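Q: Please design a sequence for this.
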């Protein structure tokens, strides 16, 4: 009996020891699993959608023909190694979408970015990505459908920037808004109407301030029902009380074009820029500057034979003699008048110093003889005189 009790004690002692060992092994296994589990990491991916008008020089933009591709839809997914959020989105007025957040479950995640439907009359021509890390991103530039960037290798804490380039396949009309003050919130309404009833009328809004409500440019491929639509178009800006409007158009074919009567060919790109400045007496009351060129003597030159400019670091204003323009307050402008007619010898004319006065007759000081700084509310006229210094020429004199 005593032997049996002794055996039972040893049996229970062994079982307790084994039980404790099992518990310790289980706890150790949990710690090992926790140590082996990857720490959640994340990175970002941002899309830049760009319209390149001729589809060339996409990365360098050496031909200066790129515009933001706003309103395009994109899809994002991860092949392996993590997840991405959100999975869909639309580019803003600057053609930017993101940043997307990529959550990694391994050392690298492989991201796919696609344009599910390329808008009509555009062709996706190129795409690439750059990252903040020094390694080259492992990607296939174009997928089988020519509309995406696949297998972008994204590591931890990486800021990836991806660029999509598409070109139009129709006549293109580009409209740009250039408002004198970059902080003025004024919006401008436009209409584009084609001569043919098949050419749909378009109405849109542009502005040139610092917010993203509206873009300062618009691009329209001219097409209808699957066909390019060259022809005659009228582009107008709705007039606003207190604002002056000037427009100028350029053609990729070197043709003369005006906004109210654009005759565009099938392979032509026309760019029209509308420049708006506040008129005299409007509010807020920006400075107003007028440059006047007096031409004296019996030479053949006219006022228009001189180009007059007021130049600041980031703003160049071209003046017609006697026509006022709004300028920036607190900015130093350098005034200049140079002969633009090859038939006129500038040495035949003696140029005076600039003289600047308010409309009330108060003299405005100049810096270095030709530079001026204006304050809000000031209305200043600056004059210069070019006097003919040669002999009398019979006939009609200058004005």
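A: Design:
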């Amino acid at each position: 009996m005593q032997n049996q009790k002794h055996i039972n004690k040893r049996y229970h002692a062994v079982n307790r020891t084994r039980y404790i060992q099992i518990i310790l092994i289980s706890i150790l296994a949990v710690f090992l699993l926790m140590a082996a589990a990857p720490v959640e990491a994340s990175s970002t991916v941002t899309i830049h959608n760009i319209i390149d008008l001729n589809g060339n020089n996409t990365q360098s933009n050496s031909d200066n023909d790129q515009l933001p591709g706003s309103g395009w839809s994109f899809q994002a997914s991860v092949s392996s190694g993590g997840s991405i959020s959100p999975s869909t989105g639309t580019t803003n007025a600057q053609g930017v979408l993101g940043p997307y957040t990529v959550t990694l479950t391994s050392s690298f995640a492989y991201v796919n970015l696609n344009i599910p439907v390329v808008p009509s009359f555009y062709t996706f021509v190129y795409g690439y990505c750059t990252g903040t890390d020094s390694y080259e991103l492992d990607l296939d530039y174009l997928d089988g459908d020519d509309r995406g960037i696949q297998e972008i290798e994204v590591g931890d804490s990486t800021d990836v920037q991806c660029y999509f380039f598409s070109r139009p396949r129709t006549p293109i009309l580009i409209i740009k808004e250039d408002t004198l003050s970059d902080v003025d919130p004024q919006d401008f309404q436009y209409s584009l109407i084609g001569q043919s009833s098949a050419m749909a009328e378009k109405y849109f809004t542009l502005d040139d301030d610092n917010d993203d409500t509206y873009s300062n440019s618009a691009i329209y491929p001219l097409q209808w029902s699957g066909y390019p639509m060259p022809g005659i178009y009228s582009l107008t800006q709705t007039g606003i009380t207190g604002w002056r409007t000037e427009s100028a158009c350029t053609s990729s074919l070197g043709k003369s074009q005006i906004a109210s009567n654009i005759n565009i060919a099938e392979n032509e790109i026309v760019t029209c820029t509308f420049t708006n400045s506040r008129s005299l007496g409007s509010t807020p009351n920006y400075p107003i500057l007028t440059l006047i060129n007096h031409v004296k003597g019996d030479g053949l030159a006219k006022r228009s034979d001189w180009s007059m400019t007021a130049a600041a670091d980031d703003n160049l204003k071209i003046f017609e003699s006697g026509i006022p323009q709004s300028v920036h307050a607190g900015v130093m402008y350098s005034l200049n008048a140079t002969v633009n007619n090859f038939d006129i010898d500038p040495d035949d004319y003696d140029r005076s110093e600039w003289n600047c006065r308010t409309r009330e007759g108060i003299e405005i000081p100049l810096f270095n003889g030709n530079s001026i700084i204006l304050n809000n509310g000031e209305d200043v006229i600056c004059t210069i005189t070019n006097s003919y210094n040669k002999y009398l020429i019979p006939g009609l004199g200058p004005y």
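Q: Thanks. Anything notable?
A: The two ends are 140 Å apart (CA to CA). The chain has three domains: 41-168, 172-278, 288-388.
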